[in-house]
Amino acid sequence: MDEINDTNLAYIKQSLKPQTPTVRMTQSDNISNLIEALCAAKLEYGSVVIKNEDTRKNKAAKNTNSGFGYEYADLGMINIMTTAYLASHGLTIVNMPYSLKDNMYMRTRLYHTSNQWLQGEIKMILNDITSQGLGSAITYARRYLKLCLLDIAPVDDDDGLMAMQDEIGNAAMKNILDNQKKAKDNGTS
Question: What's the whole-number mean pLDDT along residues 69-93?
């Protein structure tokens, strides 16, 4: 195990600084075959999402953030709902975490068998300098990049409100989420 020295300490401190996530999307020169295959796969996994609403709700209920009361589709659920449909159309996703200039990034690439690709990259923000903190940042980045690349709206997600938590405070956050839930329950959202 590496010993902690001034260089490592500077890297750790940089990783903990409040930062704005940086997102970048890139693609191969031609993505026409990839887009055709993605559209076909999306028709299939999109109908699975609709048909399995009760299953999704039951699974999502296990993933409720008790502090704010919203539900979310975890990475495992997203993989179960999409992987077979992507593969049947020659598509797969590969995740590649890496570090560059004291920052951690996740690159998620959607490949097609025609060698065409579409990718997203996000700068990962570490809230905790532990293996668990890194694992959490990696899972978060993988989930959101996959949702973005596959154009999937997650179950009862918080619409990014958690990212604003420090700015508006927990009480205001809970109020916003409660109002969203009431509107949804009343059929007005």
Answer: 84
